[in-house]
Design goal:
Layout (H helix, E strand, L loop, with lengths): L2 H9 L3 E8 L2 E9 L2 H9 L6 E7 L1 H15 L2 H6 E5 L15 H10 L5 E5 L8 E2 L5 E2 L6 H17 L4 E5 L7 H21 L4 E4 L14 E3 L5 E3 L10 H21 L4 H8 L3
Parallel strand pairs: 3-4, 3-5, 5-8, 8-9
Antiparallel strand pairs: 1-2, 6-7, 10-11
Length: 277
């Protein structure tokens, strides 16, 4: 995808949204662009402009976007101060650059600023060889795979922060299948190493959500806030249910707020001062 095409696609994502419920799933219907008009109105009122958080990556990232969307719907002040950019693409990853190149995609988004923070989740579709745009292959499981994959993660993060944005790379949770779980564990190590190599306070690796402290176990059902057992993992042994993604976001949300605070925006503090909750 060209840089111009990528810019055009992501701009369409910065929309104020209306929740709709269909077949038990929440979707968003875009209404009007959020840009200079919103920022100018906020500035005129003496308030800082809204921050924009872009969710990028695979279907896991899209599930996290949904959880954050629902969270904003329950908090008026948070919804006014935080705007979401839904830019995840199901079925993608970092290995098939010949089909979808997240390095270039994130670079295009960062080059035309709109996102203050990128939230990235990758890896569930990456149990395969790396194929670049020239069809050069780096075999999955081969001696060069880990180094090449880590370099791709690092390139995504470097591109994300290149124009002043921040990026969080989310760790993958425990998986049902033993091979998939081993791969997720290894991917988390590569994510952590790549972010460490970037060595920027605006780049953070967020450890995976766990059902309990210590070595995690795959548990499809867990007690919710009311101590009722609910299904939190999807039947595929990889994804989460709506309730599950909400639990994951409960863990990830502080890291997102910390990233914004590192950028000088204490959103929780701003809302407390307003008494708008």
């Amino acid at each position: 995808m060209s840089a111009e095409g990528a810019k055009g696609m992501w701009k369409k994502r910065i929309l104020t949204s209306r929740a709709c419920v269909a077949v038990g799933m929440i979707c968003a219907v875009g209404l009007t662009a959020v840009g200079l008009t919103t920022a100018s109105a906020a500035a005129a009122a003496g308030d800082p402009p809204p921050v924009h958080i872009a969710f990028v990556g695979d279907s896991m990232a899209d599930g996290l976007w949904g959880a954050m969307f629902r969270r904003l719907g329950k908090d008026k002040c948070l919804a006014e101060k935080v705007k979401l950019i839904r830019h995840a693409k199901n079925g993608t990853g970092l290995t098939r650059l010949d089909q979808y190149n997240w390095v270039d995609e994130v670079g295009a988004m960062a080059a035309d600023p709109g996102a203050d923070v990128f939230v990235g989740s990758f890896g569930i579709n990456d149990r395969q060889s790396i194929v670049d745009a020239q069809k050069t292959r780096t075999e999955y499981g081969g001696p060069a795979f880990d180094g090449r994959y880590e370099a791709l993660v690092e390139a995504v993060v470097q591109n994300a922060i290149s124009n002043g944005s921040s990026m969080l790379v989310m760790g993958l949770p425990v998986m049902l299948d033993a091979a998939a779980n081993a791969d997720a564990t290894e991917k988390n190590h590569l994510f952590s190493e790549a972010v460490a190599h970037v060595a920027s306070p605006r780049a953070v690796y967020v450890p995976p959500w766990q059902s309990h402290p210590g070595v995690d176990e795959y548990k499809p059902f867990l007690p919710n806030a009311n101590n009722a057992m609910v299904q939190v993992r999807a039947p595929d042994g990889v994804h989460f249910t709506t309730a599950g993604y909400d639990m994951v976001m409960d863990d990830f949300f502080p890291a997102i707020m910390d990233s914004l605070k590192q950028r000088g925006r204490d959103i929780a503090g701003e809302c407390e001062k307003m008494g708008a909750r």
